[in-house]
């Protein structure tokens, strides 16, 4: 009877109800947590080093060329200060579902003062999902190797200062990247999707390959490749200089297992598939193979795990691959100070690739000091000045032509007047001893006779007429007839 009463106690019923509610609550929590885990997005990170503010924005826009989710727009790029940040969602082919989120961190100067800002970005969870990108600009290619040296030394300084867990993770990432290097796809390229070849061929590392690993995957992007033609036209660069730069970059990047790509603004490139491949992101597009390109000088693409010393030598003979390999190791060695390394790769590069514009700048400074500088004139202002000069010349030509026409008209009037006068006066005649003589004919005869006498045509044995008052007879007669003609011309003809 006592047990029967206990079954009907109110406290026992309340405890059963509370336990049932707790079980239901736990069930919903487990279901919600499982859904949350299933929908948790993979997070990838890209650390962009170097470049200008515009160059960094261009790089981010190139990564987002695949489009955005409906009803959304691109996130702003905040890179005006020390450490910039933005993010992008990697979408499927229909631009509806988000496959992964890509966080982009940006920094422009390799200053040691930024190390405290960069160190928190590297954690055991984020290191396997991080890619390092170094931006270079074709407007100043003579500074490239020095810039890369500064960034590599900065990264090594950060990684050596991480805690033990992070350093162990870095070692794991390095081993995974090295094993990825030793796996070569049958198709001859690096595939961004699932491979369908006959199998993977394991090949050993060659000379100078991956012997200076940084710890994370590295990609070098040379922007504004359209300025190659400008260097060729204005600075007189030839194919030898461009081939030397390419061989030099490939040699030092081969030591880090890095990729290299040249890009041009507003031109299609393989930058986005290359970044996706290095981050192990399954591209939402169809399977795409990154095909190497070392022939077209403005579309160079050297995927990771593809290059070798033999391929570098083929581009142009005479390039010292071994010397550059050793020189770069000396430049980035932690035992080397930040100053110049004698015989280092930076010194060799800058001896060949020089800033030839420095001489022009020095000459320009000298001209400024002498007061010979000519300030530039606005285009519209220059054209207005030229228009005034042309109008003044046109007015002057018009005035000169008018004066010539007036003079020509006056000459024509005088000539016509002389002809009319001659027609009215007629021939001048006079009577000599009862003989009618034409004065013009007589004067012409006297001139011919005088000319013949001056030429020595006088017949031998004849005596020339004596002079009269120091003048020849012909001159006297000529003066006489001329006076008669003047007198006749003054009056009316008879």
Structure commentary:
The chain has 494 residues and is of the alpha/beta class. It is built from 16 helices and 13 strands. The chain has helices spanning 2-7, 10-38, 53-63, 115-118, 144-160, 164-181, 228-234, 239-254, 271-278, 309-315, 321-331, 345-352, 357-369, 379-425, 439-454, 473-490; strands at residues 43-49, 84-91, 98-107, 130-137, 183-184, 190-191, 201-202, 218-223, 259-262, 289-290, 301-302, 429-432, 435-438. A seven-stranded mixed beta sheet has the order 2-3-1-4-8-9-11, with helices on both faces. A two-stranded antiparallel ribbon has the order 5-7. A hairpin with a 2-residue loop joins strand 12 (429-432) and strand 13 (435-438). Helix 8 crosses helix 11 (321-331). The longest helix has 47 residues, at 379-425. The radius of gyration is 50 Å and the shape is elongated. 22% of the residues are buried. Residues 1-10, 183-199 and 457-461 have low confidence and may be disordered.
